[in-house]
């Protein structure tokens, strides 16, 4: 089983492993510099335990891949020949987040350091347009942002796509997005073709709830390793970050909290079952409970939520009692994710965030009553500050993480200014 | 913020980081040898990218910590001076798994390679005895196993303790174990004192469902990275392995599937709420549905499950219809974990495994109907082969993993035979 060759020959497996080792070492060096724990080649050698020759080769490669740059200053203290200081060269690599929503399309271009380079958003009736036209429109919008990004000298690493539905992540296909009326949409290959992307570009498609959770986790002021983001729109989904990693399961089909059956023989749900949580806290349920005159008016979720909020603020009794009922069932839903995932924080997104003042008091009481592990486990629940932009932010985040976790995805083009 | 000293001096933070780097390198070397990817010092240097001097120091330390040994054979092919081959020396380090159940106590001693060194089990009425007496009895049982383990020349690395309840993992305290009638039991400090353990020994206490999941994941024939273990006893708990790691959340309070409310205004549950899943598929619910004459007879769960099984096999209509109803709600529970965690496999443990033939057909139908991501997500559901021993196995596993993830926990005593 473990056939051995002399050093310097190596089987295919061994070469594969050596590639993995080198990639892991690139990631380690990048992380040390990114966290400002080491800023010269000799410090990197000390920190990582790698030889100076190895570190030097890794740094050269990271500079060629435009992930590090020499800052030009010199190392003042210490023994031996001073070395040039290194810093993250995130400004030359861009990540695009794009989002397909039932009511709008959005694109956001950032660099590796998270600076926004360009951003566009347009109202769009996605279910009406059909998948091919919608993705074509998205590609046009992304193309405009990409043009702006590339004119500033930044190279695209990849695109993270947020979709409200079941996504087959490995193939980049949207399996089923009921609210878009999409089935088996090969969005990755369409975007690749229409944006003329090549194999150096990463395209990741993921569920909007997963990407929203990633955006909440990557907030500069975030201090927790474990959080659940609960997004309320027409559907209800959870994105889970646990131990600083997005929970993906075996194929990315995680966090379908909206279809936990909470009422035996309850109201029919779009999934074909009855009494799902979504039939109690999805936006349609909220409208039915709090503003039944809006049923069937087919408005944008954000607009519907604004009407609910305005009526509640004006003291409309129906709105107040309806949102209180939503608060009860939202609390049931939060208690389920708390009892299963034990996060340090639950962040409410989508329409939940907009009406938070009117649903949180009841929801928090439910959570306290239902947290099996007691009050310590009944973690804080906050409203997202990202409004309806969390998913597109997360789309950009996932590409930034991909690049920093696999620097070889960045083309090796020599240091800035040489090509 | 980033104060810098010359090489060789170093702040406290820097020394801390260097310790982390060395520990990580020890783990990398150990993993390479464990997986048989590298078996000589020069191969390890090639694979890890570390210098030969660094590798040599790491290997010496791992030999002193009795985690590696030289096998005495020589490297035949290749260029340069041949080196001695290395192999995992798991036989000198032992891990104990111990389990507190409402009806029995169990202890299992294994070496790092997973070989069983000694095993003991006794019937015990834990709630009746009270926590202090129960832990005293457990310590006596563990002491016997430990004596047998140490007589064979093996040194204890630590003890993994499985408890059916809410465990505060960092402090090693059982917060609340309703079926044991325990509250705030400092089991770690009691076991440390009564077994005369010192700071070199690890003691980990965890929920039995978590440890059962770890045992299923560590089966030699396991091929999946993501699984959920659903254990049915008086209570119902889920242990989740995701991306090859046990899901812990922020404080270890994960997997409380038994308290998902599935029937609004349903039967009262021990947790204080109504209509929890446990009120439908806990062992008491099964007895109520399938063999109501056994209610209140207070038998050992395994014995009650054997009676249910025998009656179902004999064609008792009440037993068959009752277990079919349990199968329905078990399928609801499985669909919840499938829709939230997207595992590749669900393993049923405890009484579920014993009556699997009579609950699985119905449960599998429910799962197929309720898997939101479609048939591909409706993963296989199997019965555990471990009976009621999964948790004690997982207790030993968690110590083995701790040692291999942090070799510095093994005392540095020189190579075998020198002390």
Automatic annotation (TrEMBL), chains A, B:
GO biological process, one term: regulation of DNA-templated transcription
InterPro entries: ATPase_NBD, ROK, Tscrpt_reg_IclR_N, WH-like_DNA-bd_sf, WH_DNA-bd_sf
Protein name: ROK family transcriptional regulator
Similarity field: Belongs to the ROK (NagC/XylR) family.
Species lineage: Bacteria, Bacillati, Actinomycetota, Actinomycetes, Actinopolysporales
Domain HTH iclR-type: 27-70
Gene3D superfamilies recorded: 3.30.420.40, Winged helix-like DNA-binding domain superfamily/Winged helix DNA-binding domain (1.10.10.10)
GO molecular function, one term: DNA binding
Residue numbers spanned by region Disordered: 1-20
Organism expressing this protein natively: Actinopolyspora mortivallis
């Amino acid at each position: 089983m473990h056939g051995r060759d002399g050093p310097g020959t190596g089987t295919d497996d061994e070469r594969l492993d050596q590639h993995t080792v080198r990639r892991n070492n690139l990631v380690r060096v990048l992380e040390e510099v990114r966290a400002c724990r080491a800023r010269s080649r000799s410090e990197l050698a000390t920190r990582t335990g790698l030889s100076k020759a190895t570190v030097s080769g890794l740094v050269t490669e990271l500079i060629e891949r435009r992930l590090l740059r020499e800052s030009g200053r010199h190392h003042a203290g210490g023994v031996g020949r001073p070395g040039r200081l290194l810093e993250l060269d995130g400004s030359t690599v861009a990540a695009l987040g794009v989002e397909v929503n039932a009511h709008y399309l959005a694109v956001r271009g950032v660099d590796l350091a998270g600076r926004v380079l360009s951003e566009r958003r347009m109202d769009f009736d996605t279910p009406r347009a059909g998948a091919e036209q919608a993705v074509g429109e998205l590609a046009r919008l992304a193309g405009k942002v990409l043009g702006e990004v590339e004119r500033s000298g930044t190279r695209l690493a990849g695109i993270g796509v947020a979709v409200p539905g079941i996504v087959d992540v490995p193939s980049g296909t949207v399996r089923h997005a009921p609210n878009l009326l999409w089935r088996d949409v090969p969005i990755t290959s369409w975007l690749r073709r229409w944006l003329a992307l090549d194999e150096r570009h990463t395209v990741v498609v993921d569920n909007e709830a997963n990407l929203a959770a990633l955006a909440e986790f990557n907030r500069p002021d975030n201090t927790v390793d474990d959080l659940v983001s609960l997004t309320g729109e027409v559907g209800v989904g959870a994105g889970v970050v646990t131990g600083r990693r997005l929970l993906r399961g075996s194929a990315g089909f995680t966090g379908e909290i909206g279809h936990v059956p909470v009422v035996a023989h309850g109201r029919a749900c779009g999934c074909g079952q009855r009494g799902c949580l979504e039939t109690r806290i999805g936006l349609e349920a909220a409208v039915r409970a709090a503003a039944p005159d809006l049923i069937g008016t087919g408005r944008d979720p954000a607009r519907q939520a604004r009407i609910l909020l305005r009526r509640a603020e004006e003291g409309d009794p129906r709105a107040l009692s309806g949102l209180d009922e939503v608060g009860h069932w939202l609390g049931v839903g939060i208690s389920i994710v708390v009892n299963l995932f034990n996060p340090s924080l639950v962040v409410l997104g989508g329409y939940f965030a907009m009406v938070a003042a009117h649903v949180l008091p009841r929801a928090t009481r439910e959570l306290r009553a239902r947290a099996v592990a007691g009050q310590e486990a009944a973690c804080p629940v906050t409203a997202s500050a990202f409004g309806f932009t969390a998913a597109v932010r997360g789309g950009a985040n996932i590409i930034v993480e991909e690049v920093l976790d696999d620097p070889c995805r960045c083309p090796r083009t020599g240091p800035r200014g040489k090509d």
